[in-house]
Amino acid sequence: MLTSLALIFLIGLLLGSIFEKLKLPSLLGMLITGMILSPYALNLLDDSILNISTDLRQLSLVIILTRAGLSLDIDDLKKVGRPAILMCFVPACFEILGIILIAPKLFDITILEAAIMGSVIAAVSPAVIVPRMLRLMEEGYGKEKSIPGLLLAGASVDDVFVIVLFTAFTSLATGDNVSAKDFIQIPISIIMGLLIGIIIGLLLSKFFKIIHMRDSAKVIIFLSISFFLIELEHSLSGILPMSGLLAIMSMGATLYKTYHVLAKRLSKKFNKLWVAAEIILFVLVGATVDLQYAKSAGVIAVIVVVGALLFRMVGVYVCLMKTKLTIKERFFCMIAYTPKATVQAAIGAIPLSMGLACGQKVLTIAVLSILITAPFGAISIDNSYKKLLEKN
Questions:
Q1: What's the pTM?
Q2: CB-CB neighbours of 79 under 10 Å
């Protein structure tokens, strides 16, 4: 395991820095590192690392979402209002609709199988979007109209919505009954996540004001509670739906609101943790990518992914209608809301493991969506935000 970790960090850092020098996002170097080290290429990663890969990716995601919460101003988000809510589900619905319209004509699949495919690739990647929106907030780009906050909030809830749809569609495909109760889980999951996060955030704020300790100790406490929230989501599964990731973000945002000075200090600490967490996250996402699927996909699969992406962009534009955002700012939101990585790596292979006829095609599209949209989204954000957004 230690040798695998050394390879992940050293090669990930090396390729990441090379891509940065080429004016490309460092995550591309990290994704390529994972592909090189994966069981599908040189097979240099120990089984012990691969067995806990999902947990390590989730740990990294917790770190960056905690960091996002500690920088998220709720008052700024209130200014956005309606679009913030619409961004949580409308773009995903448009993308799934796009797949339903395109995929059955190009692949030999049913409408239900196309819906499953759409629900796999419809979730955006907080791991790609969140760190970039945080950088925009720090540099002051788009802050006046809360554009980074809008994309941050949408990216965290979007995943909850899509995963519930994916579960419902796969249940239908396997012959299980799907009731209205399954879809009611979406708002309940969001509300419970927000409520639990706010309550814990308020308690932590009072605790930290009374009990004085080093900021490093506070970071450990914050992280530990975040891990408990993720575990609580799993424990309550089937009983009471709750979004652990949303609870983590709202916990951080509550601390930002009630104890701003501490939130800023902790945010800097989490920024340092992200240096290592980012490498682990993207290298391990890269390690899930089997390039054989991408090779066998052909032009048709690329057309499906790109077509779905265009539908998604239209969905984002619909969300931003009747807002004060300029055409440039709306275009930025459209391209910034495209990257896929973490959810696709996590659920892309599930239909195949369930024995569904569309499983192989779904996995191929999931792999392609990572390879196409993660670089496209990251490069588009990095190269356009200074031109498309106003600096405050």
A1: 0.84
A2: 14
